[in-house]
Amino acid sequence: MSAAQKFIAKFTDIHPLPHIVTTISRLIADGESTMKDFEEVIKMDPVLVTRLLRLVNSPFYGLAQTVNSIGRAVAFLGMKNLHNLIVADALKSIFVTKDTKAAFSKKRLWLHSAAVSICSKMVAERIFGINGDDAFLCGILHDFGLLVEEQVEQQAFHGICTACESTADLLRLEQQKFSTDHCEIGYLMTLDWKMPVTVQKAIRDHHLLSESLLPSSLTGIIQISEYIAGQLSHTTLPNVSTQISPCLLEHLQNNIDEYNVLIEDLPEEMAKAQAIYG
Residue 109: inside a domain, yes or no? Predict the structure, then answer.
């Protein structure tokens, strides 16, 4: 068992992921799945049913008629939106725990992940004209390995967070202390959770500095969005600089007008997302 796998084994003993997350992920990966399959899974979770119907009938969507069936709600939201809602709900409860005054804060990590996820969806759709659902999901999950490390090796992890000044420092110190890092841990967890392959690879590589990284790839989008979030002070750790591949920085500079508009709209989009995901 690798060092990353040992972290995951210990973490899942503390916080087992709800079965519905992996079930929905499996259904999405299966091209033969139907809306009825999703409905059969969802109706077994009364809390999720209530949340789903409340969301679809909220002022955010402004529907003329009330949606009162699971099938119609799933059809309206779409399978990937539903998947993202379930993942966000499942993980949020793990983040919402009492924080200490240490450098690392679960609340700060959640706000960082939320900012990156929303920005990623915007970059995918506005800049590259592609569907942003996987980008949103990847943004929520990309730094989840940090939470695993904090839960399993709390004292050592907080020492790393206090010592690092950049994302490169963070990865180096993780490898020195744990013989793994949060990127590898997150990657292996998404393998277990049956997440899309592009999401798995982007989580594994989101700190990889490369001259050949395509801005429109999911890895490129996550790295761009994490950089933007860092510029707006939505960082994982206070006073830690976020590094970005040179080719992505060049892409940002070449398209600065479009990105300035996106950044101006980000607070409003985050407010909208809070209405959905909390």
Answer: yes
Task: Please write the tens of the pLDDT for every residue from 93-132.
Answer: 676 666 666 778 888 888 898 899 999 999 999 999 999 9
Query: How many independent structural domains does the chain possess?
Result: 1
Whether 51 maps to a domain, the answer reads no
pTM of the full predicted structure? 0.81
In a domain, 217, yes or no: yes
Range of the domain at 118: 3-16+97-277
| Per-residue tokens: 11 | 């973490």
Separation of CA 16 from chain center: 18
pLDDT for residue 14: 65
Which among 214, 239, 245 has a CA at the least distance from the CA of 227?
245
CATH of the domain at 203: 1.10.3210.10
* Gap between the Cα atoms of 258 and 35, Å rounded: 37
Q: What are the residues whose beta carbons fall under 8 Å from the beta carbon of 218, sequence distance 6 or more?
A: 134, 135, 138, 198, 199, 201, 202
The low-confidence residues of the chain, meaning pLDDT below 50, are none
Instruction: Quote the DSSP letter at residue 16.
Output: P
pLDDT in tens, 196-220: 899 999 999 999 999 999 999 999 9
Q: Are the C-beta atoms of residues 114 and 270 closer than 8 Å to each other? A: yes
What does the CA dihedral 162, 183, 86, 28 come to, rounded to 10 degrees? Answer: 180
